[in-house]
Amino acid sequence: MFNLLAEADTYPAIIHCSAGKDRTGVSIALLPDLLGADHDTIRDDYDLSNPSLKGLMDLVRAAGRPIDSDTIEEQRRPYSASPEAMMDFLEHLRTEHGSAHAYLESVGVSSTGLDAIRGELLE
């Protein structure tokens, strides 16, 4: 995803998924971290997936997948975007890699590509 975002002809870009909390949520969290956003802002953005939780659960049921739990809280847990989990992820990112930039370089995104993303989105 970040290698694609490094290409100017990728823009405008839409990045989406059903829930916005797993792979997409982490990917989207890396982007504002790369751009210098503070972790509270990233957490709050991640939390915006939660208001659509009922709709997501309705889609899961409509697809024939049962939601087997006794309480509403237990039913929601696997589908919710925990702000605390995002803060844990961001702390782990910082502890293990130092920054989103360093992490993304470690998985094959060039520094030039990361600079290109910053240029596209901040200028």
Can you tell me about this structure?
Helix 2 runs antiparallel to helix 3 and helix 3 packs antiparallel against helix 6 (83-97). The protein has one domain. The model has no long low-confidence stretch (mean pLDDT 89). With 123 residues, the chain is an all-alpha fold. The protein has helices at 2-5, 23-35, 39-47, 53-62, 72-76, 83-97, 100-106, 111-122.
Protein traits:
mainly alpha, 8 helices, 61% helix, 123 residues
Helical content band: 55-70%
Sheet with the most strands, sense and barrel status: none
- What coarse outline follows from CA principal-axis ratios? elongated
The total of helices stands at 8
Mean pLDDT: 89
- The radius of gyration over CA amounts to 16 Å
Report low-confidence residues grouped into runs of 5 or more: none
Structural class: mainly alpha
Calculate the terminal CA-CA distance, rounded to whole Å: 20 Å
The counted number of beta strands is 0
Percent of sequence in beta strands: under 5%
Q: Can you tell me the number of structural domains? A: 1
Order of helices and strands: HHHHHHHH
Helix-strand blueprint:
Blueprint lengths: L1 H4 L17 H13 L3 H9 L5 H10 L9 H5 L6 H15 L2 H7 L4 H12 L1
Helix pairs in contact: 2-3, 3-6
